[in-house]
Amino acid sequence: xxxxxxxxxxxxxxxxxxxxxxxxxxxxxxxxxxxxxxxxxxxxxxxxxxxxxxxxxxxxxxxxxxxxxxxxxxxxxxxxxxxxxxxxxxxxxxxxxxxxxxxxxxxxxxxxxxxxxxxxxxxxxxxxxxxxxxxxxxxxxxxxxxxxxxxxxxxxxxxxxxxxxxxxxxxxxxxxxxxxxxxxxxxxxxxxxxxxxxxxxxxxxxxxxxxxxxxxxxxxxxxxxxxxxxxxxxxxxxxxxxxxxxxxxxxxxxxxxxxxxxxxxxxxxxxxxxxxxxxxxxxxxxxxxxxxxxxxxxxxxxxxxxxxxxxxxxxxxxxxxxxxxxxxxxxxxxxxxxxxxxxxxxxxxxxxxxxxxxxxxxxxxxxxxxxxxxxxxxxxxxxxxxxxxxxxxxxxxxxxxxxxxxxxxxxxxxxxxxxxxxxxxxxxxxxxxxxxxxxxxxxxxxxxxxxxxxxxxxxxxxxxxxxxxxxxxxxxxxxxxxxx
Length: 484
Fold this sequence. Notes:
By secondary structure, the protein is of the alpha/beta class. The protein has helices at residues 11-26, 50-66, 82-88, 104-110, 116-122, 164-168, 197-200, 209-221, 248-262, 280-288, 305-310, 317-330, 349-362, 389-412; strands at residues 2-7, 30-31, 40-46, 73-79, 94-95, 132-133, 179-183, 185-186, 205-206, 226-230, 267-271, 295-297, 335-342, 366-371, 418-426, 432-437, 442-446, 456-465, 468-473. The strands form 5 sheets. The protein has a 6-stranded mixed β-sheet, sandwiched between helices. Strands 15-16-17-19-18 form a 5-stranded mixed barrel. The two termini are 46 Å apart.
């Protein structure tokens, strides 16, 4: 028996997918990249962007047509808005919040695929069936679900963060031998007007720091080199459990101390922080420990205070400026990444130009620029999307040009320097490998030695482009390398 899984959206969804893989493997399924070979087809969806949701509808339409010629079970989970959830109930066989992943074997067994794990679940008494089973096939499915109580779609009120601790107890099946994610938090309490996360993942819940540290130690012992701490707002970690949990700076400090004691080389990243909760204590901790990567992703979203107010970002440009100043002062070698939305409801030419000026002022190494799209359920969906698509595209290209102007300036300064990099795989350029610096700048170098993949090497930089650099393997390992 085989399954095919599609993951859409952010790194959190990729991390969730690794736990879905574990549950399906324990049921006796093997993964396949060919959906035509699978009897179970799943999507880890993302309601945050309309494009991602459009991909879900296109895929399930194809899968439901496939049911005319073979037996299939389809499911969807992930970050799903209530409005999308109600539509999915009519299209997928199984719709469930990610926190209910441990019950997936029971859900599938109700649809007629019997595995040992499914049989075991049937023997467990429960107060009620948590998943919602739907009847969606244009023709009757050969899978006959058992008669179980299920909710009317109109009455469903999801609590996506419920039972998240049980979900975290599922050990992930990692898709890489050297890069890995560790979820430290779920949900968000900020309620930015453009954002769907509080409605798809619920309120903030912090994971046990003891569990986080245990997982990190295990991963480092297994040889993982790049570890990313995940949360919708990582630097508010622990605030929902005051007096019971440590704060985010203290968590980073514990990781740093472990890094010093382990004697092993690895880089720890985190994403994403919120400017409102970003203080010097986090930056100071990063500056003190070698294993804490000198790269910070700090979402700005807009460079105009009025737009930030309408976005309910709860920070001003002056606050953001102070954070960047502290990063440059305490970690001058750090790279700086950001997120920006162009064409937000009501954004004027002058307000957009303030964002362009901010891009020029902060000289980001990378910016993930998105054209605003309305998401049902988010507060801004009640407002008119009054910035024309052509204007959004034009503003997107203006900021992209601004980004490349500053990134090439930074990358040119690296020519002639020797950098420590983590080799990630083969480059698109034939005969070359691709790597990342500690600051997550893409590096390519000439080599076909696959044994270097997943390892640290030193590269002497010879060329630079706006978003990448190129070099050659250093003739000898240097004792001190440049960190970027």
